[in-house]
Amino acid sequence: MRIVDLDGSAFERGRQQGELLREEYRGVMRDLLSSPEWRDHKPPLFPDGLVGPVLSVAGRAMTWPWGRRHVPAQAARVKGLAKGLGLSTSQTWGLQFLEVVFCEAGSSLAPPPPVGCTVVQAQPHATASGEMLTARNYDFPTMLQPYQVVRREVPTEAGRLATTTVTQVALVGAHQGVNEAGLVVSMNNARLWRGPHLRYHGVPLSLLAMELLETCRTTAEAIERVRATTARSNAGFVSLCDRSGDAAIVETTVRDLAVRRPDASGVLAQANHFTELAHANLPEGTKWTVAGMEDQEYLAGSRARQRAALDHLAKAAGEISVRTLQQVMADHDGCDAGHEATVCAHGPRGGTLSSMVIENASRTMWIAAGNPCAHPWTEVRFRGGAASEQRVAAK
Fold first, then answer.
1. In this model, does residue 391 exceed pLDDT 80?
2. Share of residues in the chain with pLDDT > 90 (%)
3. Which of 3, 230, 256, 333 has the fewest CB atoms within 10 Å distance of its CB?
C-alpha cells in the first residue's frame, strides 16, 4: 500500500494528495466503469460519459454546503484535492458523496458490499503491555483494494494535529487513523435504506472522522464533537480510544446517537449492526441481492463476525498483544478458506481490503495490505517531523 507524506495547510495537503495520486484516481474510475458492479447496477441506458457531470450535481447539492459549514478545514482539503486531481471542486465533492451512496442498502449505483468491517478494542488492563490497542479490518468491494493509501500528515494550521490515516485515493476523509495525541478513530458503516436514519445530504462520516483526528485529543472530546455535528448523512459506528484507555463505540444515525463501552474485561468489538440503537437496523431476515449471496442475511453475517472477534478477545483478556490482534483479524472461524461472514472476509465481489493494528502510546500502525491471513504486516511509524522508519514485521 502506498504511503504519502503531506505537509502544509488543509488546501495544500489536499493538493499534494491529488497530484501524487492522480494516476491511481484515473485507475479507480476506469476499473469502476468496467466493473460488474457498475454494469449490473447502473441505471438503464445511462452513458458512462455522464458520470462526471452527475457527480458534480450530486456533490454540489448533497455534500458541499454541509461540508463547508460544519467541517470547513475538510472543505478546504476537497478544494485542494480537486486542484491536484485536475477536477472541478463540485465533481470532487461528488466523489466524497459516493461514500454515502455505497452505504445505502439497495443502491442503484453499486451492490451492497457482501462483507463488512470489524473493529476491536483492548483497554490497558486487557493487554500484556498495559497499553491501549485497536485493530480493524476494512472490508469493501475487491475492485477498490489497489486504490488504498496511507497518509502521514503534519498540518501547519494552529490547533491541527498530525495524523496517520488510511483511506481511498480520491477521498479526503479517513476510515482509520491515529493522531499525535494518541487518539485512535475507526469508522464502520451501517447499511440502511434512506429514511429516518440515513439521508443523502450532510457530512459523510469519513469527513467527520478526519476532523476528529485533527482536532480532538481524547475520547471524551471526540464523543462530544460527534454529538454536536447534527448534519451527519450516512449512519455507522465511530470507534474511539485514547492513550488513557478511555474507549467507546459511538453508534450514530442521522437522528440518534448512543455510546457503547467495553465490558469488565476491557474488550469491545463492533461489526456493522446496531446494539444500542437496534431499532435502526435493517429488518430481521433482510438478505443480500449480490449474485451468489442471495440466501445470506445481512444481520446474521455482521453478528457472526462481531461474536467471533469478541470470543477471541475474551479468551485472551489480560494477555492481548499486537500479535494477538493480528491473529484475531485473520480469523476464519474454523473454516480453512474463510467466507463473507468471517472476520477475515472472503467474498465473490468483496473481502478484507486491508487490516490495521494500532498502539495508542507509540502511535504505531501495523498494516496488512489485503487479507491478513495471506499478507505480511508492515509497520508504519508515526511521522513527527523527522523521517520515520517502516519495516515488514515478521508474521
1. no
2. 72
3. 230
Query: For residue 186, what are the contacts with CB-CB under 8 A and spacing of at least 6?
Result: 119, 134, 136, 175, 176, 209, 238, 239, 240
Q: Which domain holds residue 319?
A: 118-393
The grid coordinates of residue 238 equal 465511530
Work out the average pLDDT over 144-172.
98
The per-residue pLDDT for range 201-238, each reduced to its tens digit, is 999 999 999 999 999 999 999 999 999 999 999 889 99
Q: Is the pLDDT of residue 181 over 80?
A: yes
> H helices of the chain, where?
10-20, 22-33, 36-41, 51-58, 64-70, 72-85, 89-102, 205-215, 219-228, 298-316, 322-329
Structure-block grid coordinates of residue 135: 485493530
Task: Please tell me the predicted confidence (pLDDT) of residue 196.
Answer: 78
Asked if 291 and 372 sit in the same domain, the reply is yes
| 270, 240 contact by CB (below 8 A) | no
Same domain? 303 vs 169: yes
What is the DSSP code string of 305-358? HHHHHHHHHHHHTTSB-HHHHHHHHT--TT-SS--TTSSS-B-SSEEEEEEEEE
